[in-house]
Design a protein that fits this description.
196 residues; Hypothetical protein af1432; 71% helix; mainly alpha; 10 helices
C-alpha cells in the first residue's frame, strides 16, 4: 500500500506544479494531519490517505478554467484510481471525501474519512501556517494586509467551530488561540496613525 501512496504522491505533485497558498506543501501537511487524526479516530486509511493526496490536485486548473477544484479533482482521482484498479467501493468513498472537503462547498462530509479530510484542510488554514498562507493568497490576488485580515475574520476565525472530529477539535484549540492573538496584535499595529 505504501508504494501505491508514493506513486499517487508523485502523480499529484506533478499536477500541482506551482508554489503558492495551495501548493504541494499544503497537500503534504494535510496528508500528515489526516494520518494523525485518522489513527486517533480509527479511520479507514486506505480511503483517507488517497483522498488527502488527491484533494487539491485540480487547484491549478480551477484558476485557469473556473471549474471547482473539488469536482475536477474527484474526476482526476477517479481516472487514476480506476487505472490502478483500486476498487469501486473505495473509489466512491474517496471521491465523496474529495468533493466534500472544501470549506465553501454545500456538500456535507457524510463519512468519517470525509470529515477527517475536511478537518485537516481546515486545520492547515489555522495557526501560524494559516496566517502565512493567508498572506501568500492575498499577494497572489494583488491584495494587501487589510484584505488578509478581513479573510481571517470572515473565514479563519470561524473554522474552529466547524470541525467534525474530537481529535481535530482538540488540535484546533491552540491554532485558534494563536490566530486570535495574531489578529488582535495585527489590528493594533495597522491602526496606528501617521502623525505628520
Amino acid at each position: 500500500m505504501m508504494e501505491q501512496y508514493r506513486e499517487m504522491r508523485i502523480f499529484v505533485e506533478k499536477a500541482i506544479n506551482e508554489p503558492g497558498s495551495h501548493g504541494f506543501d499544503h497537500t503534504l501537511r494535510v496528508i500528515t494531519l489526516c494520518e494523525i487524526i485518522g489513527r486517533e479516530e480509527d479511520a479507514k486509511m486506505d480511503i483517507l490517505i488517497p483522498a488527502a493526496i488527491f484533494h487539491d490536485i485540480a487547484r491549478p486548473l480551477e484558476r485557469k478554467t473556473g471549474v471547482p477544484h473539488e469536482i475536477k479533482g474527484a474526476e482526476m482521482a477517479e481516472k487514476y484510481l480506476i487505472r490502478i484498479s483500486y476498487g469501486e467501493k473505495r473509489i466512491s468513498q474517496i471521491l465523496h471525501a474529495i468533493k466534500a472537503h472544501r470549506f465553501s462547498t454545500a456538500m456535507v462530509p457524510e463519512t468519517l474519512e470525509a470529515q477527517i479530510l475536511s478537518d485537516a484542510d481546515k486545520l492547515d488554514a489555522m495557526g501560524a501556517v494559516g496566517i502565512a498562507r493567508t498572506f501568500i493568497s492575498a499577494g497572489e490576488r494583488g491584495d494587501d494586509i487589510k484584505d488578509g485580515l478581513n479573510h481571517m475574520h470572515e473565514k479563519l476565525l470561524q473554522l474552529s467551530g466547524l470541525l467534525y472530529t474530537r481529535s481535530g477539535q482538540k488540535m484546533a484549540e491552540k491554532r485558534h488561540e494563536f490566530l486570535l492573538s495574531f489578529v488582535q496584535a495585527l489590528e493594533k499595529e495597522i491602526d496606528m496613525e501617521i502623525t505628520f
